[in-house]
Design brief:
Strand order of the largest sheet: 2-1-3-4-12-11-10-7
CATH class of the largest domain: Alpha Beta
Number of helices: 10
Order of helices and strands: EHEHEHEEEEEEEEEHHHHHEEHH
Strand content: 15-25%
Distance between the termini: 23 Å
Mean pLDDT: 85
Oligomer: single chain
Low-confidence stretches: 293-300, 305-310, 317-370
CATH superfamily of the largest domain: Class I glutamine amidotransferase (GATase) domain
Shape: globular
CATH topology of the largest domain: Rossmann fold
Length: about 375
């Protein structure tokens, strides 16, 4: 079973885009099972929770190997991600973890740009604007309080017809073959692109078209895993409204500041199916981010023990691991019959290190991991 963290960049705020606004996404991910009926994914969905060093506790846990995938939803306009957060994301990606980045219009979620290498996939007004200066203008003129980038792909609740690039990427494929055709629409989407640094290992896989100006804009960029990209696979998405409850089902409600007209195009069976298939494809593709080989939970935890604070910022090392991670470590030690010596060295049974135990089990070649 893979572990997925769905994470927003703001603390819980009732009348805002807190993680509860993505409950249908959570339910859908939890619904997937293998042939024996066992869940494929364990999903944790949390808003931002910072420790006294202002590092998000769940991102720190991801950096220590607690998760296989992080779905990071940029809903802040204040630069919420700290250096400690982005360092943790770097460690997570260096370990091969898969990452989804999504945001919204103008500068909403612009702290994503502070993530090394792949943060440059996201374009905002004040941070990393599109290179084409002719794009630095309002697309949707109806929402006067919102500025560019704000591509109008349709009303909330409607579906937008997308253009899928060829060759067809697994992210954009329907269950029975052929390309996805629909995604949830939004009156002011953001935009993504392929940064020069990763041009050889990334590409645009889907574009949209503004219903106001006719301009096309990039909806989705994928980045392959490897040294050139800085770690695990990445999906860069132009708007979190592709995943939001109110865009899948307007009856789910939205924050009070959402005052644009609503549509109902997502009631279409094809649109309903494509939006959920897109989510399934993301989870499957990111789930293969670590590459071939049985990277078992035991091995991932071994990596966390042996490399725990190797590259963490001093402030975050001083803060220590968060409570949830410590509890997970303790539970794993109990399940694996591990003990801790008086000097703090972890042992498996009598006279065996964790590394020795896993080497003898033949689970994986540890030289590849270290």
């Amino acid at each position: 079973m893979q572990r997925i963290l769905i994470k927003t960049t703001i603390p819980f705020t009732e009348d805002d885009w807190h993680v509860g606004r993505f409950s249908l996404l959570q339910q859908h991910l939890r619904s997937f099972t293998d042939t024996s009926g066992k869940p494929l994914y364990e999903v944790d969905a949390r808003d931002r929770v910072a420790n006294h060093a202002n590092c998000d506790v769940d991102l720190l846990a991801a950096g220590e190997g607690a998760y296989d995938q992080v779905w990071l939803i940029g809903v802040d306009s204040t630069g919420a991600l700290t250096p400690g957060d982005t360092d943790a994301i770097d460690r997570f990606r260096h370990s091969g973890g898969g990452l989804l980045l999504t945001r919204d219009h103008q500068d909403l979620g612009s702290s994503l740009c502070t993530i090394s290498v792949i943060g440059a996939t996201q374009h905002f007004q004040r941070a990393n604007p599109e290179s084409d200066r002719s794009r630095h203008c309002i697309d949707d003129a109806e929402s006067l309080q919102i500025s560019w980038p704000n591509y109008h792909s349709g009303c909330n609740g409607d579906a937008q017809r997308i253009l899928v690039a060829q060759p067809l990427h697994p992210l954009m494929e329907r269950t029975r073959g052929g390309a996805l055709e629909w995604l949830p629409a939004h009156p002011h989407e953001g935009v993504v692109s392929v940064p020069t640094e990763v041009a050889e290992v990334a590409r645009v896989v889907a574009t949209g078209r503004s219903l106001r100006t006719g301009n096309t804009f990039n909806l989705i960029v994928v980045v392959e895993a490897g040294e050139r990209s800085g770690g695990g696979r990445v999906v860069a998405d132009s708007s979190f409204h592709h995943f939001c409850d109110c865009n899948w089902d307007p009856a789910a409600g939205a924050p009070s500041f959402v005052d644009e007209p609503w549509g109902d195009g997502m009631r279409s069976p094809d649109a309903h199916s494509d939006a959920r298939r897109y989510v399934e494809n993301i989870a499957t593709w990111l789930g293969s981010s670590r590459g071939p080989g049985p990277l078992t939970p035991e091995v991932r935890r071994l990596k966390r023990f042996t490399r725990r604070h190797e590259r963490a910022p001093e402030s975050c090392r001083a803060a220590g691991s968060n409570r949830a991670t410590s509890l997970r470590q303790n539970r794993w030690m109990e399940r694996s019959n591990l003990t801790t010596s008086p000097r703090g060295k972890t042992r498996a049974g009598v006279g065996f290190s964790i590394e020795t135990k896993i080497r003898q089990s033949g689970l994986i070649n540890l030289t590849h991991l270290m």
